[in-house]
From TrEMBL:
It comes from Flavobacterium cerinum. Residues 26-219 form the FIST domain. This is FIST C-terminal domain-containing protein. Residues 220-358 form the FIST C-domain domain. It comes from the Bacteria. It holds the Pfam family FIST_C.
């Protein structure tokens, strides 16, 4: 397995890390994560196609791109990979062709060959697709022990349009799956948030998928404003500091749900994932050091699974973490790099939602405000 990392801007590669001396014409897979204004420009795809003529090319708009130990904006972080024995297959759907994200997720997995399938890496539109329904659909048809990870494309902090492309110019509404096949592939994954919970456990008493109306039979927005205090005047932006912890299936495990928008007329909040009626929630608040420690712990989870550092680590973190950590954002990437060591190439992006299991190789979940890592290596 050979990897190369490249940063693209203004029609050229502005920096390259190619320790393995990967020959560009031998690359099988190229993934590019970058600023929406660059990703959607036909020149970007045409340039990459010229550089990597025989590769499968997947492009995704971001809210910040990860290049080695750095977090950049206004560029495209490009990763090129060639494998010794691992093979690939891809599938793509358009969300408008389906009645729901659930049906789109089912169709996406069903379009991939099953024999030898080890990993499905998902890159999805982040504005039009209900990520919670998408993962439910994929889980309903995926084979046991097949790992599903990935994330939802970003649009900086604008939350307007996101773009995804497979061997073509990126468009809005697309969902791409990359299937990895072969028994020589070493996989690992980790996903952690690092938030503090506070206050009483409460019950969602009225919701419609990802739109929240009531908690404990009280208007959720008004309750939120009470807890936010001085931060209430800064909604919805300040809500990134106070996501919700959502319990799964009445168990003790939780995933994070963050607010995308607030409607003061209907007194509702729209979250980046579903909040089913009857589910238990608690308020959360940011702890800067714990957020960074969580990135390190996610990397440690990868090491525990694979017993070795990955050759390539795909990092998908949340735009909310980027906005909260501000000029400390590179610390969470550096924490991952320190755990893996200098031989691991890091790439990825800041997203509108992260996809990863809670337990090793179990069903995937949609996360918000987490650092999610997928590790890839190949036995010689």
């Amino acid at each position: 397995m050979k990897t190369a990392l490249l940063s693209y801007k203004d029609g050229v590669f502005t920096s390259i890390r190619n320790d393995d001396q990967l020959v560009f014409s031998e690359a099988q897979l190229v993934m590019g994560f970058g600023a929406p204004e660059l990703i959607r420009t036909p020149d970007t795809y045409e340039f990459l196609k010229l550089q990597f003529p025989f590769a499968t090319i997947v492009l995704c708009s971001s809210s910040g791109e990860i290049y080695d130990r750095e977090v950049r904006d206004g560029t495209v972080s490009v990763c090129a990979v060639s494998f010794n024995t691992t093979t690939l297959a891809t599938a793509q759907v358009t969300i408008e062709d389906f009645s729901s994200g659930f049906e789109a997720g089912k169709a996406l997995v069903e379009r991939l060959p099953i024999t030898g399938l080890r990993l499905i890496f998902i890159i999805s539109d982040g504005g039009k697709v209900n990520g919670s329904e998408l993962v439910k659909g994929m889980n309903s048809v995926k084979p046991d022990q097949v790992l599903i990870t990935g994330g939802l494309a970003g649009d900086a902090d604008r939350f307007e349009k996101t773009f995804v492309g497979l061997n073509n110019y990126p468009e809005s509404g697309k969902i791409v799956a990359i299937g990895f096949y072969g028994d020589k592939l070493i996989l690992s994954h980790g996903s952690l948030g690092g938030w503090d919970v506070f206050g009483l456990e409460r019950t969602v008493t009225r919701s419609d998928q990802n739109i929240l109306y009531e908690i404990d039979h009280k208007n959720a927005l008004e309750l939120y404003k009470t807890y936010l205090g001085d931060y209430a005047a800064e909604l919805p932006g300040s809500a990134l500091l106070f996501p919700l912890a959502l319990k799964l299936n009445n168990g003790e495990e939780t995933i994070v749900r963050t607010i995308l928008s607030v409607d003061n007329n209907t007194k509702t909040m729209t979250f980046a994932g579903d909040l089913p009626e009857g589910s238990k929630v608690r308020f959360m608040k940011a702890n800067f050091d714990k957020l960074i420690d969580a990135a390190s712990d996610a990397a440690n989870s990868c090491l525990s699974l694979a017993r070795t550092s990955p050759k390539l680590a795909l990092l998908i973190s949340c735009v909310g973490r980027k906005l909260i950590l501000g000029n400390r954002i590179e610390e969470e990437v550096e924490a991952v790099a320190d755990m893996f060591g200098s031989e691991t190439l890091l790439t990825g992006f800041y997203s509108y939602g992260e996809i990863s299991p809670l337990h090793p190789f179990s069903n995937c979940e949609l996360h918000n405000q987490t650092m999610t890592i997928t590790g890839l290596n190949e036995i010689d």
